[in-house]
Amino acid sequence: PDDFLAGLAERTRAGGALLIADEVFTGMGRTGALLACDREGFVPDLVCLGKALGGGMPLSVCCGPPEVMDAWPASTGEAIHTSTFLGHPLSCAGGLGFLAALEADGLTERARRLGDRAVAFLARELGGQEDVVEVRGRGLMMGVELARRAGGAAPAAEVAERALALGLIVLPAGEDGNVVELTPPATLAVAELEQGLGTLVRAIRSAR
User: From 86, 95, 103, 109, which residue has the greatest number of CB atoms within 10 Å?
Assistant: First the structure.
């Protein structure tokens, strides 16, 4: 639901608990905002970032406000919170380069525009199919929910196999394996997006 995470944030604060946002996959512009929590209307106490942040290099971050991060006491000799590759110069340089490109190339806004375009296309092309429950998304993090089949079959896995045979990689997702997950990069060309979406439509129709 659209207001679930904002409501969860209110409950955690009322109860004195910390809310940690795992933005490793959803962050760095993918949803059409720098962080997905920005689109969902709440501010977490801690944020975990990774994947795209490194610009192709292994890099992850756990960050928060001083009142949370300073809860770790000063070290008395034993490392309390650390990482083997903490502050790795090459990875940090990759992260800085990615952040510069994200802003200079307008990739966050581009993800929003391309995502809106993709969802509208899929909703139009698949709207009349009985086995398509919903097309939804935030920026370039999208999903096509399929009707569950009798006997527990996972329809998204079949669609993924058919799409792969047509040259397109998509992932089955959802608790019951009934959601086709789409997470293309914000750097892809419009023609590539349209080609991929057309291929997905063919795969879904052939799996009926």
Answer: 95
Instruction: Express each pLDDT in 118-167 by its tens digit.
Output: 999 999 999 988 899 999 999 999 999 999 877 666 799 999 999 999 99
Tell me the per-residue pLDDT of 36-66, one tens digit each, with 9 for 90 and over.
999 999 999 999 999 999 999 999 999 999 9
pTM for the model:
0.88
Domain final residue pick, 49, 75, 104: 104
d(CA 14, CA 4): 15
Four-CA torsion 109, 32, 189, 179, nearest 10 degrees: -170
Residues pairing with 137 in the sheet: 142
Give the list of residues 6+ apart from residue 26 with CB closer than 8 angstroms, or none. 35, 36, 138, 141
Single-letter amino acid code for the residue at 135: V
Q: Centre a 10 Å sphere on the Cβ of residue 78 and count the other Cβ atoms it contains.
A: 6
Domain count, the chain: 2
CA distance 137 to 144: 9
| One domain, residues 33 and 117 | no
Asked if residue 135 lies in contact with residue 126, where contact means CB atoms within 8 angstroms, the answer is: yes
Strands 46-49 and 61-63: antiparallel
| Backbone phi and psi for residue 141, each to the nearest 5 degrees, phi listed first | -120, 100
Q: Are residue 99 and residue 143 in the same domain, yes or no? A: no
Alpha helices, DSSP H, located in 57-127: 66-69, 89-104, 107-126
Residue 79 carries which DSSP code? -
Helices 107-126 and 89-104: angle between axes, nearest 10 degrees: 70
